[in-house]
Protein: Nucleoside diphosphate kinase
Amino acid sequence: MERTFLMIKPDAVQRNLIGEIISRIERKGLKLVGGKLMTVDKSLAETHYAEHVDKPFYNNLVSFITSAPVFAMVVEGEDAVHVARHIIGSTNPSEATPGTIRGDLGLTVGRNIIHGSDSVEAATKEINLWFNTDELSDYEQPRNPWLYE
Ligand code: DAT
Ligand code: MG
Structure:
């Protein structure tokens, strides 16, 4: 089993899409092990997006992420990092495949609905950055034999 970090961005929170997005994640079979609505401070936003510090869009990205609450989550499942990225879709919603979260719900790259960790290493780092261990729940679900061989 693998865990990944997802963050519903301020645009989707403001558009009342939290339920729609969590519903897609749950229906796929991923299991929610942590989740919280929170306002992100500048230092957390800068640490989270540190890899993009030299990009022209970095300042706007930090302003956007700190502009209104986000919904941060940890989800678990087989190959969870890849599966979550796959259902999220391409970075630019105008090019993301219909059926994906960004492809169905977004229009522009600067308002692209949701973040998902892009590797297992990034997921570990981001889960530790955004969540304390006591905010994550270990539990079994009876549905598991119906999701996994
Ligand atoms: P992703 O979120 O798909 O992993 P990324 O890591 O390349 O994409 O970029 C992080 C975020 O930065 C992305 O979700 C939206 C924003 N971003 C990326 N490219 C951009 C661009 N060309 N213009 C404006 N914002 C951009
Ligand atoms: Mg990324």
Q: What stands out?
A: The chain has one domain: 2-138. The pocket of 2'-deoxyadenosine-5'-diphosphate (ligand 1) is lined by residues 52, 57, 61, 91, 109-110, 112, 115, 118 (CB under 6 Å).
